[in-house]
Amino acid sequence: MAATPLDLELDLTHAEAPFAHRLGRRIEEYIRLSRLDRPIGIWLLMWPMLWALWIASSGRPNPRVLIVFVLGTVAMRSAGCVINDFMDRQIDPHVRRTRDRPLAARRVGPIEALLLFGVFAAAALWLVTRLDALTISLAFVGALLAVSYPVFKRFFPLPQFYLGLAFGWAVPMAFAAQLGTVPRLGWVLFLATVLWAGIYDTLYAMVDRDDDVKIGVKSSAVLFADMDKLLVGVMQAMMLFALMLIGRQLKFGHWYLGAIAAAAAFFLYQQWLIRNREPGACWRAFLNNNYVGMAVFVGILLEYVYK
Question: Which domain holds residue 118?
Fold first, then answer.
């Protein structure tokens, strides 16, 4: 019996199905490798950038600059995750939390990872070229910080603060893009952001501390040892103080003070969560920092809306 057009169409559909399935699985692995399925890192990178843009523009950021920075944040965070996993592909299989990452589990090859990194880095580079020369110059410094961070984990005892430099570099870039310069206030906000990264990444490192000690990975959680909760509290107080100085210089009022009070309440909650150093609770404390960043941004936003 001769095949009908319908039979041929069904055969073609079945032949294409495995390719479509494989393609979907590759895309899924690339999303996992770049952490696009876990946006917490994007938000922790995004909030200080938004603080800086709103302050630098007195509450009226340039729409083009805002779009470039939002998209650039996503691209650079994704590129940073990919290159981090590439550098850690021999370490991650020995850490419980990271052993199922695509590179660690050998579901994605090193060459694929480098190509994916190149795509995200090229996208970020194209975006930043839409901005002025000073911001472009600062962007190259930020890219160097982000790419070199995985190396610093090998020997620097406090890589969380180096990560803070990389994550916080969007702050001076935002001031440069809006004002053409980075005022002293911008550097104080940058310092607050570095402290904040030290806080939440120490909480993050507390989750993996036992594994990190076994394999020799450096982290603030390992260095701080049983003084970890105290030193996280000291950093939390220093960050809040820096934010208060910024609010005082800008003559912010009760909206901003309320936001700082909310951030302080979230910090107290984080201290309660980590009281027993249980990894799951430390992870929840790390995630809770998203609300800290959101609270500060809402306070800044409302100051300019009702000023």
Answer: 34-305
